[in-house]
Amino acid sequence: GEPRKFDPKFRGPIHNRHCTDIICCVIFIVVILGYIALGVVAWVHGDPRKVIYPTDSYGQFCGQKDTLNENKAILFYFNILKCASPVVLINLQCPTTQLCVSKCPDRFATYIDVQASYRYKPDQWNYFRQFCKPGFNSPRKSVAQVLRDEDCPSMIIPSRPFLKRCFPDFSTKNGVLTVANQTTFKDGRGKTRNVTDLREAANGINNVLDARSVGMKIFEDYAISWYWILIGLFIAMVVSLLFLVLLRFTAGVLFWIFIFGVIGIIGYGIWHCYWEYDHLKGIPGSDLTVYDIGFQTDFRVYLQLRQTWLAFMVILCGVEVIIILMLIFLRNRIRIAIALLKEGSRAIGYIMSTLFYPIVTFILIAICISYWAVTAVFLATSGEPVYKVMANETLCKYANLTCDPETFNSTNVTRLCPGAQCTFAFYGGESLYHKYIFILQLANAFVFLWLVNFAIALGQCTLAGAFASYYWAYRKPADIPLWPLFSSFGRTIRYHTGSLAFGALILAIVQLIRVILEYLDHKLKGTQNSFTRFLLCCLKCCFWCLEKFLKFINRNAYIMIAIYGKNFCTSAKDAFYLLMRNVVRVAVLDKVTDFLLFLGKILVAGGVGVFAFFFFTQRIQVFAQDAPTLNYYWVPLLTVIIGSYLVAHGFFSVYAMCVDTLFLCFCEDLERNDGSTAKPYFMSASLHRILGKKELSPKKA
């Protein structure tokens, strides 16, 4: 942890490097080859049709072309009361006969009633029969035997299709749950039951159905407005680039205008909220509270309330006060940050290609996400159909045992358990591969996290190498090497793949633990006691903090790797001690720079967002004819704002990396050199003037 001694031969990122963390590099390559093999195996065994089409009790897909079920695309459950929740239904593990039908039932009926009146009401019988097993037409067979053999459902309920499956058609009338305006129904076994029993069987489906209708409207909005969304994102890109180009020349002026601009925009927001609040005074209904009107999908309803505008005003006032206080207390620190940003913008000016490096990272991450998603789907659908004995008699010892539908009728089961059937249960298998599908899914997720972190690390190390070669050029720009970005990328891949993989591996392990904790928390909801909840919450919090700390250490370790070419552990240790020796500078410079860059993203996203708002709400007269008519104008608006923020984030992340690299180089420079002719500083004169101390010997911050 001691400061480095002066090395007269040191002239920036060293070129006579050697490979670092070779063992980790070999393991990484082997894991990638294994991951490709896993993808091939999953592709061979998987069948995405199992996700697209529901499967009936005979193991056949509903709605698949060139089969008997071609025109029967919807799955119908004989007794939906046996299904605990939609999750069970979607997993196709519901202990009742499942049949492909062309449309869901639209009325209440029980088999007992229909069978009793089949002679003088043949229409009812023919309607009911389409929900019985194919080919069944024996109204004289005793009701007990029909229900035992599950030839027909005991009842049918008005339903509508959801996820290609028939679910009860719920609606709420005056706060009471109903199905087709009824609150009770006959279950076909002599009992009258309440509709809430159905609700428990299809728990939460009503909300999902509402969400589905909203989802369809959102999809329509995207279909109409995608062209304008792309134009909005292109404008955001141009504004971001323009912002960076301007920053090269007028960092100080621009940032102060910029900060006061943000204060002005928030000030306007406060005035507008007050105007709306005052304007709604005395208008009937405007004094209602948000709690009174509940959740509404049309957000314009909330804008008619005074309380909404008051809440907006209070929030904006709070933000305004915080920003003004931060400016008062951090004004000198902001000057320092601006000096560093000027140096950073100068560096980017000489190495413009760095601005477009995030596109490479984006492409690499997109490939990782696509490969992971496809592999996950193929793994999830790579099971063989598993059939199990389904017996209505609970005492049957063969119940829930696996069976073969082709040989089932010749076994003892049908004799010992009358009415037992061999029906499709789920996709799985008994082979070694099928038993470990869950483990393979975990491995898929883990390698995905590892690869994504590696792609990010590669970007950070490459950019750090390029910016370090700028800093350690004694005469700028004459001593900057040719193609600094490409040579840095080449060095990183050739010598330091192992080190980057090591750093990414540590981060991936922590992220996988976080994913497992989230999964456990989700699974145990409702069943856990307060102690378990507290323990899980603590663990989640600890691992979140650990991940943040590791990201910070890794980022600085990669900068040290880019400069000195040492292994990951040595670089991480050196970076950590260097930062600890300059802890005050780190805290102020790093955070102020992050804050200023964050304000930049807000300004880009906010500016484009305001323009998009006026455009999509048809308030700009010039474009009023071109603006599309939408169900929800906030759909493209939010997409444009979030997209603009991400575009700005891509460009500004290069800046943040530049500033971090220059800062570490600056700290190294101060420790190695003292500004004398024998040990000259490498920093530029302007940076030395503002950042450098007046003394000629390095001291701790």
TrEMBL record:
It is a multi-pass membrane protein. It catalyses: choline(out) + n H(+)(in) = choline(in) + n H(+)(out). The chain crosses the membrane at residues 21-44, 226-246, 253-271, 309-330, 350-374, 447-474, 495-517, 595-616, 637-657. It is found in: Cell membrane. One of its GO terms (molecular function) is antiporter activity. It holds the Pfam family Choline_transpo. GO terms for cellular component: plasma membrane. Its main location: membrane. Keywords: Antiport, Cell membrane, Glycoprotein, Membrane, Transmembrane, Transmembrane helix, Transport. Belongs to the CTL (choline transporter-like) family. Choline/H+ antiporter. Choline transporter. PANTHER family: CHOLINE TRANSPORTER-LIKE (SLC FAMILY 44) (PTHR12385), CHOLINE TRANSPORTER-LIKE PROTEIN 5 (PTHR12385:SF42). This is Choline transporter-like protein. The lineage of its organism: Eukaryota, Metazoa, Chordata, Craniata, Vertebrata.
